[in-house]
Amino acid sequence: MSFENPENDLGGKANEVAAIPSASKQAESDTPLYQPLDARNIRLLKLLPGSGSDPIRIQLQSASLEDPGPYTALSYVWGDAKVDRRTIYSGDTELSVTANLFHALCRFRDVSETRTWWIDAVCINQSSTTERTHQVRMMMEIYTKAERTVMWLGEDAHPNLEMLFKVAKARHEYARSKHIIERPGGKTPVVLYSNDLESMEIVANVRDRYASKCMWVSEDTRRHHVPPESDPKLVTVAFRDLETRETNSNPEYVIALDFDKARVQTAEKESFPDFCTFLLEAIKPEEFDLTDAQCIGILSALDYIASKPYWRRAWIVQEAIVSEKATLVCGKHEIDFDVFCLVYGYERSTELDVKNVVLDDVRISDGQSFLKILMQVMNQPSDHISINFMSLLETISQIGFYRTRGQSNQMPDLTLGHLMGVFGEQLATDPRDLIFSLVGLLRRFSELELQVQWAETSISYSRDVQTVFKKAAQHIVDSYPKHRIDNQPRRDYILSFVKFDLSRDDTSLPSWIPNWTANRGASNVLFAEDDPQIDTLIEYDANVQGDHLVLSGHIVDTVTMSTDIGHDEDFYNEVDLYHTVVEQNLGTRYGSLAYRFGAFWRAIVADNPIGMRANNGGDLVSLEIDALRSWITLCAENC
Description:
Blueprint: E1 20-21, H1 23-28, E2 41-47, E3 57-64, E4 72-75, E5 85-90, E6 93-98, H2 99-108, E7 115-118, H3 120-123, H4 129-137, H5 139-145, E8 148-152, H6 161-181, E9 185-193, H7 197-211, E10 234-240, H8 244-247, E11 253-256, H9 261-269, H10 275-282, H11 292-306, H12 315-322, E12 326-330, E13 333-336, H13 337-344, H14 357-361, H15 367-378, H16 389-407, H17 416-423, H18 433-445, H19 449-457, H20 465-478, H21 533-537, E14 541-545, E15 548-552, H22 569-572, H23 576-583, H24 593-606, H25 620-638
Parallel strand pairs: 3-5, 4-7, 4-8, 8-12, 9-11
Antiparallel strand pairs: 1-6, 2-3, 2-7, 5-6, 9-10, 12-13, 14-15
């Protein structure tokens, strides 16, 4: 089994790509750069003020993790240490860091203020295996206690990035405003603020028109008199029942706007049942509706972000999920990561009515609508074709989903097997980090005693890769439940990770222990991760004896080949998609209707594994999107 990783720029905790003090400069200093740390201490990086071509200067100081004070944690890809390194300074000591980290330090240092950071490559003495093990065990707490985590993608070089970030921010702000305006009536004034005086005048006039009918405020607040505003930039539009945290103890709730002037003027001429309905239309931002060209531009920008190696790095999963606040930064552009997920992920917001670009504009789950956009994308110049964005959407959707569940304490039954099933395709320079990067999530969220106990002692860089993989595999076997939880099939049994890997020709590990460094491809037919119906029907016990996996199960029947399945055309006439084929006279190049049905059957069922896959937890949309992504990739390869 080979554990070499061709992706040597993904970052990790490996020594060869850490910040390296210059030996000659270190000798001139009376004090070594890295002093031993107490058991619960970490190092914080003080990023000293500077600008432009000023050298990057830092200071390192020890702090107790129990009360470290405010700091920002950096989540990033170290970069290729052998290609491009830069120099920063800690006192008289020169440190050699990768170019990506150097650019991040340049981006985030302030002209006049010292800023406090935690950055693994510099804050951990990477030459000490003992310290590295100790600090990595505390990694989850380090990111949890940070004021915020900056997810640094690197420098930007795409013309549509500004639109990508602007659309997300504008739609989220509108959703927040809509949420406030639609709240029950109360005593807190809701006030619009804008420099667009012409639009503000229109809103005020329409409000006054409805005020005569006592319809612009709730029943409980009709007695309130609205004094004329002395500032034309302010217009009171409602009185709502708001909590203190929503108003930050202010006497009013202010909505700051950049009006879409054309939309306001159009809304003024239309008839609405009440003032609130008019208001919700009038304050929609320009970014609320997108043309096909703008959608293509956004897909192109998403594709650019998806190409960043950051998303493939194993450690970002834990760093993003456990952080209280996460900010996504690419060059000069930044946005709250939760906002980015709401506007560009697969998951619908459960609290805010956020218009999602992927689901509502591009309409990725609507095959016919998405095909229209896709064909325009495919007709772009070859260097602008956007296909990789599909993998980014899946990644941010998964991380966003687990962030939301974690923040609401909805993962008490989290297991290592489950995490490896979801995030097992991430990459790391050090293969051990494929396991270690997920351990903190068990400590943070799982309430299963066996999972937490294993997580407390599982991280050790003194163990070789084979030992780490073997211990992880045995833990998955040992913690496999003897019964299903809530009568649901489990996906985290060890055989769900065993794949047909023809390149695995060594004997360093038993065949039942997964090679988690391999790209996961075709599944074992009987124990595929996406086929938990086997586990639903046949429960089995598993245990490890030496290097052997011992299974006990039940023989239920002898299965022979069924040759007539799938040939009942009447059955498939009930499928809406096949109705579309017939009604729109599609697929005529295949000849007769019988041949066209044969092509339909093979494309949709026989040649597509989605036709044989079980509904995982009711999430049929994810299966459809998986199949769609495979189809898009096939189109790209054959266009």
